Amino acid sequence: MGSPVRAAAKTVFSLIDLPLGAFPGPKILIYHQIGAGNRKQMDLDPDDFRSHLEFLTSGFSVLPLEEAIDRRAESGSADHVVLTFDDGYDDIYRNAYPLLKEFHIPFTVYLTSHPIEARTPLSDDGRSAPITWEQVNAMQESGLVTVGAHTHTHPDFRTLEPSQAEEEIGLSTELIERRTGVKPDHFAYPWGYWSRSCDGAVREQYASAVLGGGQPIDDASDPLLLNRIPVQLDDGVIFFKRKVRRGQRTEEYVRRRLTKYDGP
Fold first, then answer.
1. 52: buried, middle or exposed (CB in 10 Å: 19+, 13-18, 0-12)?
2. What is the reported pTM?
3. Apex CA 144: angle with CA 140 and CA 149, to 5°?
């Protein structure tokens, strides 16, 4: 566990969430990096990630993204989980993929195309190299991965005009299809932030779109506005299990107040 302050806050949030009961509907989890060693909140310890997979396969059904969306109205959908990875770091291939193969778990990777194409780091920490197209194609051969789009340069869509969003989406989709042979049908908003002005551009191109944390998914949920549950370093295993069972309602409420985000 990392910061004692974060641990204390997560404990308080979890206690506040208790009366709210279980988190209904399928849970779409957000991962970023596994074992990069940068100690950022989005970089998880590989042993913890293994524990996550052991926990999920012991009591839940881990489904491909599209199947979970299609089955979101089922009475047992609260036991459905989807694993998604944002951005496209090379440690997904090096550290996460071997474990996902071992457990035979389907997953979705949302790729930001410019860093992969230009071979530029996704961060200046020295531990955030992008995945390669060859690695993406190798994962596709397993039949476990769904490749989604995450724009070309990872801008905050709240700052873009619709024409700029169309350009980001179009270039990303074109490159992914050209390099992998598969046109992406699924999209992740950068930073998890939805934009009203860019919503139309996303809807024209994709069958589903995911955001950051928010309300549970049910049969009335718009497949182009699906909230996910972020997984963080300081969740460890204990708070990860609580998030999967109960969501992160209070933690998400505080995050939205701090970031002044008022989207879906």
1. buried
2. 0.96
3. 65
Distance separating alpha carbons of residues 66 and 22, to the nearest angstrom = 23
Looking at the structure, give the CATH architecture of the domain made up of residues 4-256.
Alpha-Beta Barrel (3.20)
* Bridge pairing between strands 186-188 and 43-44: unpaired
What does the alpha-carbon distance between residue 105 and residue 110 come to, in Å, rounded to a whole number?
16
> Which secondary structure element, helix H or strand E, spans residue 162, and what is its range?
helix 162-180
In angstroms, what CA-CA distances link 235 with 34, 44, 74, 82, 239? 14, 9, 29, 18, 5
pLDDT 10s digits, 47-74: 999 999 999 999 999 999 999 999 999 9
Residues 251/13, Cβ–Cβ less than 8 Å: yes
Q: Is 174 helix (H, G, I), strand (E, B) or coil?
A: helix
